[in-house]
Design goal:
- The structure is a single chain.
- This protein is α/β, with parallel strands linked by helices.
- The protein has one domain (24-189, 242-392): Alkaline Phosphatase, subunit A, CATH 3.40.720.
- 29% of the residues lie in helices and 14% in strands.
- It contains 10 helices and 13 strands.
- Strand 8 (231-232) and strand 9 (235-236) form a beta hairpin.
- Helix 8 runs parallel beside helix 9.
- The longest helix is centred in the last third of the chain and has 25 residues, at 287-311.
- The chain is globular, with a radius of gyration of 22 Å.
- The N and C termini lie far apart (50 Å).
Length: 393
């Protein structure tokens, strides 16, 4: 039976990696001048008003029971922001404690009341609009990050989800690396599989064959990463962060994603963009316990990743975004339904001011979008592009 290269490529799960392209440039990077943009997508529509809020706003207090609010007093009170977003008592959810001193040292910022100009309550449409370079859903446009990743880099961007990252569509020098890094760069059948693929994608006179170039590039990228992984007696070891950095291991996917990014940045590969997903934020019912766990897991490993990168002398900027927020008023199932306005978070190892000041619209019914949602006073896509331009150039 004849086996074609395309069939082998698909069988070995290279299809999600087909955005990569062959170049002859080195991975070497000047650490002092480089910075990686890390984009974290809270998929499901994170309830920003249960993460950072004006706790003394009477409309906020009337709209929600205590368990769905950031509180201003008591043993579960929120953490006071050093720079309030408006003339109110602004606080972080107590589970955001790992991030508090980043705000106190001007390395953390939050922009509230931002969202899509073409607002929708559909997860699919909102994610498509947010992640594409177009202003509407169902377009053939590339991802919004495609114009920022330098094409001359051998490995310009990575995603840590199991499928193609929409924001990186059109980025040809990118890889998807889902799961633990030492496993995600290994090939089926180990050395035997590598020899087979190297023979198939070696110099065969098909220089204009795009699939051939993709295969060559991916093998080169994976081989370079694998060669930099720590080994003992020839065996690749599990990642060991610095003793001062504490990752949360409750969520295996989130742990692997953050540690993968830490390792790749510390390898000095010249990585410019990393896209991570953290899902589970569609909290229509029984929100309180769920969101407490989500915020704790998210904030702990975000802070661990921040500290891990900082301790190595590298620089990074983190943007945290969700497709939309939740409605101001709680529903009858002790949860919140799809809304519009949300919050955008930024954390920067260089303590640069990257976000504009929040234009807070208020939470009284006349001030709400359609009388239901936090109004978006800032276009989130323009802010994302502006930060990417400043960080990457």
């Amino acid at each position: 039976m004849t086996i074609r290269r395309r069939e082998i490529l698909q069988a070995l799960s290279f299809a999600p990696l087909a955005g990569s392209a062959l170049t002859n440039l080195s991975f070497a990077v000047n650490r002092s001048s480089s910075s990686t943009l890390v984009v974290i997508f809270l998929r499901g529509g994170a309830d920003s008003l249960n993460m950072v809020a004006p706790v003394d706003d009477k409309n906020y207090v009337q709209a929600r029971p205590p368990e769905l609010r950031v509180l201003g007093e008591g043993d579960k009170s929120g953490l006071k922001l050093p720079s309030p977003l408006s003339d109110a008592d602004w606080r972080l959810h107590p589970a955001c404690a790992p991030l508090l001193d980043l705000f106190q040292s001007s390395r953390g910022q939050v922009l509230h009341a931002c969202g899509l100009l073409n607002a929708t309550r559909s997860h699919f449409e909102a994610q498509e609009i947010l992640e594409s370079a177009a202003s509407r859903a169902l377009s053939a446009a590339p991802g919004w990050l495609s114009s920022f990743v330098p094409k001359e880099l051998k490995l310009g961007a990575i995603g840590t989800s199991s499928g193609q990252v929409r924001a990186l569509a059109g980025v040809r020098n990118s890889l998807n690396l889902a799961g633990e890094l030492r496993q995600s760069v290994s090939l089926p059948w180990d050395d035997q599989g590598r020899r087979v693929l190297e023979a198939m994608y070696g110099a065969s006179g098909e220089g204009n064959d795009e699939l051939l170039q993709v295969g060559q590039s991916v093998l080169g990228q994976l081989g370079t990463i694998e060669s930099k992984l720590a080994r003992v007696d020839g065996r690749v070891q599990a990642y060991s962060p610095p003793p001062s950095v504490k990752y949360n291991n409750e969520n295996g996917e989130w742990l692997n994603a953050t540690q993968t990014v830490a390792q790749l940045i510390k390898m000095d590969l010249g990585l410019q963009v990393a896209c991570l997903d953290f899902g589970g934020w569609d909290t229509h019912e029984n929100q309180s316990g769920r969101i407490n766990n989500l915020i704790r897991q998210w904030s702990t490993n975000l802070r661990a990743l921040f500290d891990d990168i900082s301790a190595s002398g590298h620089n990074a900027t983190f943007l945290v975004v969700s497709e939309f927020g939740r409605r101001v008023k709680a529903n009858a199932s002790n949860g919140t339904d799809h809304g519009h306005g949300s919050a955008l978070w930024a954390f920067d190892t260089r303590a640069r001011k990257l976000l504009p000041n929040t234009r807070w619209p208020g939470l009284s019914i006349p001030e709400l979008d359609q009388g239901l949602d936090l109004k978006s006073t800032t276009d989130v896509k323009s802010i994302l592009s502006g930060v990417a331009s400043k960080v990457i150039g």
